[in-house]
What we know:
Elements: E1 4-6, H1 30-39, E2 45-47, H2 54-71
Parallel strand pairs: 1-2
Amino acid sequence: xxxxxxxxxxxxxxxxxxxxxxxxxxxxxLSAVFARLRRHPxxxxxxxxxxDSADVYARQVRVFAGLWDRAVE
Length: 73
């Protein structure tokens, strides 16, 4: 089964830190991510963070939605 697993990292790093999507030092190439998601809309996407909090996930889903909306305008 295919799955898109999103986890932000710091720019120029290879360490998976599970940073928030809107982290100021984030280096995730969102244009490439969104291009892939548009090419494969049936593949589920998950977000992963260090904090195990419903509030963190709810906020990041809203952040993702806003980034997605701006990317497809």
